[in-house]
Specification:
With 307 residues, this protein is of the alpha/beta class. The protein is 38% helix and 8% strand. The chain starts with 27 loop residues before the first helix and ends in a 10-residue tail after the last helix.
Length: 307
């Protein structure tokens, strides 16, 4: 056995070997961390992270490619970021941008404005103005919500105008509710409500989030009352809402006659045949027969039915 002074060093099987550290230029980490990492989604002002949630020893290559004129094939994370230890979110604001427009040019214009206002990650929907589906907006809300749960600082979703975010007041209220629930701030760059709106800070809460929440409740109440009024008007005109009845008056009369003769309801269902509609030629279900007879028995006026 060689003397202890000559024994080769060995790494613990539980600790990964750390790379030899050659300090990078003083300003290089800051230039790299100015960009969101495409590989691990580490936000600006933070080091890259590993899949198991630790601070990486090296910045990811995809992030290095975002730095102009950087030729180093690899850059080590500075020692003050504690490489190998638990990754920590930066204590800075994290901004997400959302752009939408009917054309690539319109979306690109918004994208440039959002980038100039500090949005490192921008989601873009190129869709018609009245399109209901906005998948990138949903992704932006999800990403902002996740970041808000993890970040030590504040998280903001930025749009150029309020109309970029939703088509109408109800849809806008739903988005505002999602932002408020996640604690994500909404920044509007242009328009009557331009400014930063924080769901946890007054008085902005009352001027935007609470007002939108109240507007949504009004819209829902109006929709319910409108539907109820439509049903009442249809019933007054003798029109029945909902699906067509499986058992019409003629079939009900036949069922009542069979029951009066002492035929059990299951056998009645097997004797009845639907005359028209989607299920013409079929037997009504036992449940339908029971419901029809129960509804007939529950009427206040006696009926004479001729079979």
């Amino acid at each position: 056995m060689p003397p202890s002074s000559q024994r080769p060093h060995s790494h613990s099987p539980h600790q990964p070997a750390q790379p030899a550290r050659h300090p990078a230029a003083p300003d290089l980490p800051a230039r790299i961390e100015a960009h969101l990492c495409p590989t691990c989604a580490a936000p600006p002002s933070s080091a890259c992270r590993t899949a198991n949630g630790n601070t990486a020893f090296r910045y990811h290559t995809a992030r290095l490619l975002l730095v102009p004129e950087l030729t180093d094939p690899e850059v080590l994370v500075p020692a003050d970021r504690a490489p190998g230890g638990p990754w920590q979110s930066p204590h800075t604001d994290e901004r997400f941008g959302y752009a939408s427009g009917p054309s690539a040019e319109a979306a690109r214009t918004q994208h440039d404005v959002l980038r100039a206002n500090g949005c490192a990650r921008i989601f873009t929907d190129q869709t018609p103005l009245l399109a209901a589906a906005r998948p990138e907006r949903d992704r932006a809300l999800s990403a902002a919500s996740t970041a808000s749960a993890e970040a030590a600082g504040s998280v903001t979703l930025t749009v150029v105008t309020l109309s970029d975010l939703a088509r109408n007041a109800t849809e806008l209220a739903e988005v505002a509710t999602a932002l408020a629930t996640s604690g994500v701030r909404l920044e509007i760059l242009d328009g009557p409500l331009a400014g930063l709106h924080d769901p946890h800070s007054r008085p902005t809460t009352t001027t935007l989030f609470s007002v939108l929440g109240a507007a949504r409740m009004l819209d829902l109440a109006y929709a319910r009352e409108r539907n109820a009024a439509g049903r009442r008007a249809a019933e007054a005109e003798g029109r029945r809402s909902g699906r067509p009845r499986v058992i019409d008056d003629a079939l009900l009369a036949q069922a009542i006659g069979l029951r009066d003769e002492g035929v059990p309801v299951p056998q009645i269902a097997q004797r009845l045949v639907i005359a028209s509609g989607k299920h013409a030629g079929e037997h009504p279900s036992l449940a339908s027969v029971y419901r029809a007879l129960a509804a007939y028995d529950g009427t206040t006026e006696p009926k004479r039915v001729t079979v």
